[in-house]
Design a protein that fits this description.
alpha+beta, Rossmann fold, 3 domains, six-stranded mixed sheet, five-stranded mixed sheet, 7 helices, 17 strands
Length: 354
């Protein structure tokens, strides 16, 4: 039929779309699973994906998909049943096949309707769901326009105006970007997986998996506490810090500092470092989400000993003055670096008096 439409009516084979209601809507899931490479977009109204369709689904290609369902539909139960899968399971599967973003944009509309959009990811295909709160088994008045507005944006390669998402320049450890303490704007959009897990102890809830990661390197500017965070990013982020002295880590190498969910779903980590130490910093996600953020890096030096505290008891007092006087005329009590102990050094000591 599709070939006949192309031959007889000059239809564009790259922009074929299909939609259906009820049993016809369930058929749309079959098209997605087995003929998705022939369609630019598919829409389903008041229908679910059957369990047997789901178990046998073998998509040939990503395909933009929009489905509309009421929460009180008797034919297609919103939360699924023994014959069909739930909407949440459908969304997760469609998003996975289409490579769409896993975090949805939810927009309340009139008539107790919510548009739930999973934006295009690297593959330039979206998934859209319209949830009709209290809606039954019928075709809502907005359905035709909503489906057309969505599928008309696509051809078989994806969103027509979608630009290829290129991996960030620091997508790989070998291309890590040099950064210094301060606030560094970064993005993981388009990043691939390095295949290097974190350590089990780095997260109490997410396990060791790290996806869509980017890399930085820092030469520790101080001997002290090195601190780093991604707090406030717009995706679920986590951090690993590796000793870069031996180059990029391999799977199985544990980070010496790491963080996950210290500030909401974002991360912070800290560790003692030695000035000049090369640190490799990896920022990724535990769930495949990507986005933008600010990497915040700081190094707090250890408090150096007070040179006027000659006896090392933590305060500068008369005991230290006595030791200074005992070294009069020698280098022993020299505080200003002129090579001798004299009245100038007494002034230095008194300025540090506790």
């Amino acid at each position: 039929m599709m070939d006949a439409m192309t031959a007889e009516f000059n239809a564009d084979p790259r922009r074929m779309c299909a939609s259906g209601f009820s049993l016809g809507g369930s058929m749309m899931y079959d098209l997605f699973c087995h003929l998705g490479d022939r369609f630019a977009g598919i829409g389903a109204i008041a229908a679910n994906m059957w369990e047997w369709t789901y178990s046998a689904c073998d998509p040939a290609a990503p395909t933009a998909f929009i489905h509309i369902l009421g929460t009180s539909d008797f034919y297609a139960p919103y939360n699924g049943n023994k014959y069909s899968i739930s909407v949440s399971q459908q969304n997760a599967y469609l998003v996975s096949v289409n490579g769409a973003e896993t975090t949805s944009i939810d927009t309340p509309l009139d008539g107790n309707v919510t548009e739930i959009l999973f934006p295009q990811g690297e593959g330039c295909h979206t998934v859209v769901h319209y949830r009709r709160q209290g809606g039954g088994h019928d075709v809502p008045s907005f359905a035709t326009a909503a489906i057309w507005d969505d599928v008309s944006q696509f051809d078989i390669d994806g969103f027509i105006e979608c630009e290829d998402v290129r991996p960030p320049v620091n997508d790989d450890c070998t291309e890590a970007l040099e950064v210094s303490p301060g606030n560094i704007t970064f993005s993981t959009v388009g990043a691939t997986d390095s295949g290097i897990p974190s350590a089990l102890f780095c997260s109490a809830t997410n396990g060791p998996e790290v996806t869509s990661d980017v890399w930085f390197y820092v030469v520790a500017p101080c001997t002290g506490t090195f601190a780093i965070s991604t707090c406030g990013t717009d995706f679920d982020s986590r951090i690993d810090v590796f000793d870069g002295g031996s180059g990029c880590p391999n799977p199985g190498n544990s980070p010496f500092a790491c963080g996950d969910q210290e500030c909401g779903d974002d991360a912070s980590a800290s560790s003692l470092t030695i000035e000049g130490q090369l640190l490799l910093v990896r920022v990724g996600s535990p769930d495949g989400s990507t986005g933008n953020g600010i990497l915040q890096i700081d190094c707090e030096p250890l408090n150096p000993p007070n040179p006027a505290d000659f006896n090392g008891d933590g305060i500068v007092d008369s005991a230290d003055l006595g030791l200074l006087l005992a070294g009069w005329g020698t280098i022993q009590g020299d505080l200003n670096g002129d090579g001798t102990t004299n009245g100038i050094d007494i002034g230095e000591l008194l300025s540090q008096w506790s």
